[in-house]
Amino acid sequence: MTTLPNCPNCESAYTYEDRGLFVCPECAHEWSQEQDSAESTEFIVKDSNGNILVDGDSITVIKDLKVKGASNPIKQGTKVKNIKLVDSDHNIDCKIDGFGPMKLKSEFVKKL
């Protein structure tokens, strides 16, 4: 007998398989085996155009971004080199010339 994975949403052990999908009867979440293995290994970050970003990429800011505590915003067109991706709300860690260390959301940048 094979063991079925727990639900990724609610961690329920009462999952079952139906036509190639795993189903959780407690929260009604459905997922496939490929989806389960892809989610557990790596997260994917995309820029505003849908390009996949990776560590070390160079990006450009696509709109003026106000920064709390700073007198000037980060201007549209500012280029940022050597980004680092993190799994959080602001998913890009970088260092911007004139501002220092900064966290950005990927929806406000595009890949160079």
In short:
InterPro entries: YjdM (IPR004624), YjdM_C (IPR013988), YjdM_N (IPR013987). It contains 1 helix and 11 strands; from the N terminus they run E-E-E-H-E-E-E-E-E-E-E-E.
Tell me the strand order in the biggest sheet.
1-2-3
The appropriate CATH architecture of the largest domain is: Roll
Major sheet description = 3 strands, antiparallel
Output the CATH class name of the largest domain: Mainly Beta
Overall structural domain count: 2
- Percent of residues in beta strands: 25-35%
Morphology call: elongated
* Count of alpha/pi helices: 1
Looking at this structure, what is the CATH superfamily of the largest domain? SH3 Domains
Average pLDDT for all residues:
87
Radius of gyration (CA) equals 20 Å
Helix and strand composition category:
mainly beta
- H-E string: EEEHEEEEEEEE
**Helicity level, as a percent range?**
under 10%
How many beta-strand elements? 11
How far is it from the N-terminal to the C-terminal residue, by CA? 50 Å
Q: Spans with pLDDT under 50 lasting ≥5 residues?
A: 36-41
How would you sum up this structure, described in words?
This is Alkylphosphonate utilization protein. Belongs to the YjdM family. With 112 residues, the protein is mainly beta. The chain folds into two domains: 12-38, no CATH class; 58-111, SH3 type barrels (Roll). It has one helix and eleven strands, in the order βββαββββββββ. The protein has one helix at 33-41; strands at residues 16-18, 21-23, 30-32, 45-46, 52-53, 59-61, 79-80, 84-85, 92-96, 100-104, 109-111. The chain has a three-stranded antiparallel beta sheet with strand order 1-2-3. Strands 7-6-11 form a three-stranded antiparallel beta sheet, with no helix packed on it. It has a three-stranded antiparallel beta sheet with strand order 8-9-10, with no helix packed on it. Strand 2 and strand 3 (30-32) form a beta hairpin. The N and C termini lie far apart (50 Å).
